[in-house]
Amino acid sequence: MSVQVHPDDDYAERHENGELGKTECWYIIDCKEGAEMIYGHNARTRTELVTMMNSGDWEGLFWRVKIKPGDFYYVPSGTIHALCEGTLVLETQQSSDTTYRVYDYERKDQDGNERELHFAQAIDVTTVPHVDGYADESVETRRGVTIRTFVEAEYFSVYKWEIDQKVELSQDYPFLLCSVIHGEGSLEHDGHTYPLPKGAHFILPAETGSFSIEGSCELIVSHI
């Protein structure tokens, strides 16, 4: 993917015809050994950011971090970022496509044209100096399940459920968006049983109430 940055809601509303900004997060499902991603930058001031972008000092500008399966990264608006080759993630994000492209590796389309870059907007919205997105991770363990809280933020909350036997749960939010990322199991609700193979995605609506999951599986779960 191109190296990019997203605006916050205020900037997008003023400059993108009332659109939303974009905050997102990534759970690394799989990647090559030694894989990296771009997560932030090394400019200490906005003037330095402008100088490095205009001179094409991409190696000096971009902050690369080593990643591995199971890592979680919170990517708030204003963060320069890019996934690199061979990386599979589960992304939770604001519902927005507002993107400012910083660098596209000088790739060309079939007509020989490079994709448009958005230097002026990127300079406006990039957080300088870079600030790591926080992850207020906590762990709750009880019979049958370990619940890892990755982030509870303004736009979404994201958790990982690690289930090793039958566990009784309840749905107390406007919805729960669930993805089975490892193992398999089954969900029981209101007298019905639903299989949960690896790769299954499902929504538990507000009126779900109590339910149970049985099996050996891991799920990424989010709500607003």
From TrEMBL:
Residue ranges of every copy of the Mannose-6-phosphate isomerase cupin domain listed in the record: 146-224
InterPro entries (UniProt xref): Carb_Metab_Reg_Kinase/Isom (IPR051804), Man6P_Isoase-1 (IPR001250), MPI_cupin_dom (IPR049071), RmlC-like_jellyroll (IPR014710), RmlC_Cupin_sf (IPR011051)
A matching Pfam family: MPI_cupin_dom
Cross-referenced Gene3D superfamilies: Jelly Rolls
Keywords from the named record: Metal-binding, Zinc
Similarity section: Belongs to the mannose-6-phosphate isomerase type 1 family.
Protein name: mannose-6-phosphate isomerase
Organism: Bacillus safensis
Lineage: Bacteria, Bacillati, Bacillota, Bacilli, Bacillales
